[in-house]
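Known limitations

Files may contain more than one protein. Parsers should not assume a single record per file. Below, a two-record file is shown to illustrate correct handling: read the sequence, read the token line, then continue until end of file.
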Amino acid sequence: MTPVPFEVLDEPLAVCRLDSSVAIPAWATARPFFSITRTSDELSVICASSLVPAEVTAAGGWRAIKLCGPFDLTVVGLMLSVAEPLAAAGVSMLPVATYETDYVLVPAAQLDAAVDALKGAGHTLQRPVKD
């Protein structure tokens, strides 16, 4: 696999669980990065931690690593090239994909280890990480 350029998004994120029947909340979409998935079981929202109301079930403390695409949807092994070094470094991850770009959420406490693992695997950090 060719080295993947990546960058770390600045804003801390939260992964939220809401009832599957609720409307998409306006607070969830108030920043540039958010992801919403509805299933028959739940409405899952990934958004800026600072936006999540206290009464919402959420796991905060995530940071997003953007794999700088665009990537064709038929590319094989892209996520594996990121997942393997993260797993070897003991960093948990939550992947999020869009049409052209992939993101990996990692616990904020493991961000430095994640960046080091990706760089160690030959991937290239595009800009300095902001805390």
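...continuing to the second record:
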Amino acid sequence: MIRVVLPAHLRRLAGVAGEVRLEVTGPVSQRSVLDALEGRYPMLRGTIRDQESHRRRAFIRFFACEEDLSHESPDASLPDAVASGAEPYLIVGAMAGG
């Protein structure tokens, strides 16, 4: 069971109060987790990644095990701690401005 933490605005959109738990079949990668997330919560499609290119939206970042995975390959395996459910996969809304 994969644990996913969403930013407040996406939790509100999905209608969830806390972290999301997802069943992911096959290799656990950013792509497989996001596919499972969008499959379960279709209202999130297009909010985290572009629907056509599947590239990460500009103000969204991905973290796991205290590492920024935002620029990693979407097909790279996530850390074992995330795959086992010991650690969450974090989707964070980035801040901008000055």
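Parsers that stop after the first record will miss the second one. For reference, the second record is described as follows. The longest strand covers residues 60-64.
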